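Researcher: Structure for this, please.
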Amino acid sequence: MKALGWDAADVILFTGDAYVDHPSFGAAVIGRILEAAGLRVAIVPQPNWTDDLRDFKKLGEPRLFFGVTAGNMDSMVNHYTANRRRRSNDAYTPGGRAGARPDYASVVYTNILKKLYPDIPVVLGGIEASLRRLTHYDYWSDKLKPGILEESGADLLFYGMAEKSISEFARLVQRGVPVQSLTNIPQTAFMNPEGESYATKVDWEALEINAHEECLKDKKKFAANFRYIEEESNRWQANKLVQQVGRRQIVVNPPWPPLSTKEIDQVYDLPFTRLPHPRYNGKGAIPAYEMIRHSINIHRGCFGGCSFCTISAHQGKFVVSRSEKSVMKEVEAVVDMPDFKGYISDVGGPSANMYRMAGKDLELCRQCKRPSCIYPSVCKNLETDHRTLTGLYQKVASFPGVKKAFIGSGIRYDLAFHETGGAKKDEGNLEYLREVIRHHVSGRLKVAPEHTSDDVLNVMRKPSFELFRRLTTFFHSVNRKEGLKQQLIPYFISSHPGSKLEDMAELAAETKELDFKLEQVQDFTPTPMTVATVIYYSGYHPYTLEKVFVPKTEKEKLGQRKFFFWYKKEYRNSLMQELQRLNRPDLEKRLFDAEQQPAGNKRNQSKRKKPKHHKRR
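Model: Predicted structure, token format:
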């Protein structure tokens, strides 16, 4: 600030992450947006909240407002495993060091700022604030919490990707409009005393959901709320949501319409250095940055609507794609980085293959309330042509200085296999898969079938496992034809709502017969603002209000997880006992009968049994 000749900053942002000036880090994006608007912006990364609070005082008061974010992850997901065990590292801290941010960081930071500077507005943003904007289940305290505005005392909350909201807010605050009057900005939430009027837009209809206190008394009412929260979060023309909390109301204004390509390009064209702040030199690498330093994000948003995923709750259902020109400009910037060795780690997004996919008739999209465009079936109005994306991959891979451009984001193979009725489109979609397998896989292609049981997959909003079988056949066919020896790595989840022990046993048998020994697996972790979490807490599906089985105890979870590792000797006896208890001798035979080994394993064993004098031919 002294070097810049500033007597004060206009805006001071506090973030739970280390500061990395890269478009994948939220604080950097908001900082650059505000800077482009002509404001003096200071950023305080990972302030110490346990000492005399000097990090909160060192820059003094901002002229306009403070901004707070917990960082790129909910602080509790960042800190704890699915078993509520404290993690020993933090990917967003130099050296991966744990302990650089508090639990519930958004609340802690805001409480401190409000106490130190009671007259300066504090606004909340980022993943943690976004997913906790209304009554939500907090897995780590095992209770319902009110919207985060209630506990934090912040003046305003920006949910989702907040570029437009923060720009509008800053413009009005600079004009001298009091923050308490700014109640009609889209994609924001605020608290209002019961019965008091506030500025709003005439075309915003209010939809009142069950009060926080009612949710505390009745789990079914909490579940019923979520259908409306999800639908209104993902609608083009949404209602504002109103929820009573004590004698006040949380009002959640509708989201902005999806950004245009020009608007998202403007974000990525800001002058990011793409580097961590120099203060971290010699303090160890920042693991999250190492993962994305040579990657390119080509779109945002996801219309998959998976029950356990928060992407659409934060980024929205509608996919917003960058222009090819903007993408290639970033490729050039990556190639020019001093440490670039020729390998781009990812050309992707929340899902790798949704680039440029949107409704054919956008008027139908404006009326749509479906949480997913591809479940239970692919919407007839959705354009699923992959040919433009295939062409983009080829241009990136052929750019001077690029040796390989890998696809690290998850691929929705149900989109690639979707039959549109148009021969050229359908062949183009399959050609996309061939292109990925032949030229953009770093030895292992990772995909996420998540489960094998149709009942569980229905709760997850995922396609039938039969499609994964088809992918397996297709993948191995391309590898054989091209003389490649690549692996297909599937992700699976245990203990998801709807998953029973028998379902996990079936999963083990199915994957064994496909010659997989699973490694990319996880227990379901309930995170705020997902269908699966609502089911986990309440026991009811929010769309049908019917009861759903939920594995909750440590014993149930461990019992399910063991089936991932059926091949480990230490689990064999206990798994056999479980299958006998379930009266499933068929599954016991499929898993543990030596004669039922998959063909691949038999071939491997036959090679090992050859006598030492056997000559190779």
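Researcher: Any notable elements?
Model: The longest helix spans residues 465-482. Residues 369 and 489 are 34 Å apart (CA to CA).
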